[in-house]
Specification:
The protein contains 17 helices and 19 strands. The protein is of the alpha/beta class. It folds into three domains: about 100 residues, no CATH class; about 170 residues, Rossmann fold; about 170 residues, 3-Layer(aba) Sandwich (Rossmann fold), CATH 3.40.50.2000. The strands form five sheets. Strands 7-6-8-9-10-11 form a six-stranded parallel β-sheet, sandwiched between helices. Helix 8 runs parallel beside helix 9.
């Protein structure tokens, strides 16, 4: 069995073999070559009718069936980046003929007689698990691929692990979408998590090169599919006159270090008495942060609490500078939202932030834990509004890499790389064409018969059992 990816974004026009990320000429122009797609070597085929035999075949069956994807993630009852990203994916796939996707919430609502238990610590975990496992058995059964969002530590055991176990029991392919900026510590501490990522899932997908490199340091392969944003949901506004109106939209948890945002704001307000700071979000540090405001003698600080994703754009539009100070982070959606809104961004340069925000080009970065440096960056923007506008304009241009067309290509490729064969199924959407041939197509000569030697043994064994036309490796 061979898979042909028809996409100019995925396949070189000339037949080549990917070696360490560099293309080298194939020794045999008539034999299928390979290209690196999301880190995996996939066969490519040249058409004998094209000049030099190097253009791709263009024989595509019509669309017959979408890929069925169960997306296991938090619903918006747990307001955070993963829940927002999962909802965006489901909404985008709803309008895409290539994919039939639905959300399987990790936080299902129990029957009404048990709902009061959700207010009791520990009991709510037990009740949620009692509802979650049967939900997984019911919903994953109808999926081709199970796309599982994942964080770290206890959450890893309670949310993605049950979904992975059920998916494997049902014989479904699993794509683990690992998002946590705490990955270095989590994977160092947890042999179980390393085992799951190495052996139990079919592909690890992460939203940033930072996380890809972290996983690689533990011998775990991963590919990058960035978070997506629709800039149309946020009104880009040029700040001609930059006011000292600051915004932070991170949850009030220790890793986001909102306390340093308050300390930086104290320095800014000492110089700009009319400065204001709005903090959107909630969390375990809410009371401590309000107390810190009093200790620092701050005024014009608003704690807005939780804001629904559909309303968050209003808060960005009302501000002039976005600031955050996480001590651990991955690829925050809040930074992309600020980019799309025209806000110059000041952040600590931790985790995956520097891979999305180049210091001095898309915003300004400060060392973690250095509130004085944060304040200095904020005041530098206030002193030079033209510089702030230039940063905001360049950041808005950078959003193109996170818009749906680019992110869609990455996910389609990831799904196709793990999709079990469904006889006669093909996909066609936009300019990206994907085909898995039926047996008749193979015998008609549409597809070659060479097996990619980089495929895992278990995949080759499955292909051997499914295709009696000849042993794997037969040309």
């Amino acid at each position: 069995m061979e898979i042909i990816f028809h996409s100019e974004h995925l396949i070189n026009e000339r037949a080549s073999t990917s070696v360490g990320g560099h293309a080298t000429s194939s020794e045999n122009d008539e034999a299928p070559s390979h290209t690196s797609i999301l880190g995996r070597r996939v066969p490519c085929f040249a058409s004998p009718d094209s000049p030099n035999g190097h253009e791709m075949r263009n024989r595509l069956p019509p669309l017959t069936s979408p890929m069925r994807i169960a997306i296991v993630a938090a619903s918006l009852r747990i307001l955070g980046g993963q829940a927002v990203q999962a909802r965006r994916l489901v909404e985008k796939w709803t309008r895409d003929p290539a994919v039939d996707a639905w959300l399987v919430p990790i936080n299902p609502i129990p029957p009404w007689p048990l709902r009061w238990l959700l207010r009791v610590k520990y009991l709510r975990t037990i009740v949620t698990q009692l509802v979650y496992w049967p939900l997984l058995l019911r919903e994953l059964r109808r999926a081709d691929i199970v796309h599982v969002f994942s964080a770290s530590y206890t959450s890893f055991l309670l949310a993605p692990t049950p979904a992975i176990v059920v998916a494997k029991l049902l014989g479904r392919a699993v794509v683990l979408n690992y998002h946590s900026g705490e990955a270095p510590d989590h994977l160092r501490r947890s042999p179980f998590a390393r085992l799951v990522l190495k052996r139990w899932v079919d592909m690890n997908v992460v939203p940033s090169p930072f996380l890809r490199d972290v996983l690689a340091s533990f011998g775990i392969s991963a590919v990058v599919a960035p978070n997506t944003i629709d800039p149309g949901e946020f009104g880009y506004r040029v700040r001609t006159a930059l006011r000292p109106r600051l915004l932070s939209t991170r949850n009030l948890e220790p890793i986001y270090n909102v306390a340093d945002v308050l300390r930086a704001f104290a320095l800014v307000q000492a110089r700009h008495p009319d400065a204001s700071l709005t903090i959107v979000g909630d969390g375990s540090q809410a009371d401590a942060l309000r107390a810190l405001c009093s200790t620092l003698g701050l005024h014009r600080v608003m704690f807005a609490g939780r804001v629904p994703p559909d309303e968050i754009h209003r808060w960005y539009d009302d501000a002039d500078i976005y600031v955050q100070a996480p001590s651990i982070d991955n690829m925050p959606l809040s930074v992309l939202e600020a980019f799309a809104s025209g806000l110059p961004v000041v952040s600590t340069g931790v985790g995956g932030v520097p891979s999305m925000l180049i210091d001095g080009e898309h915003g300004l970065l400060a060392p973690a834990g250095d509130s004085a440096a944060l304040a200095a960056h904020i005041m530098a923007l206030l002193d030079d509004p033209a510089f702030a506008r230039r940063l905001a304009a360049q950041a808005r241009q950078a959003c193109a890499a996170y818009e749906w067309p680019a992110v869609r290509d990455a996910w389609i490729s990831a799904y196709r790389a793990v999709l079990p064969e469904r006889k006669g199924v093909s996909l066609l959407a936009g300019t990206n064409r994907v085909a898995v041939p039926s047996r008749r197509a193979r015998t008609d000569g549409l597809i070659g018969r060479t097996i990619d030697p980089s495929l895992p043994v278990r995949v080759v064994d499955k292909m051997r059992r499914a295709d009696p036309l000849g042993p794997p490796g037969a040309a």
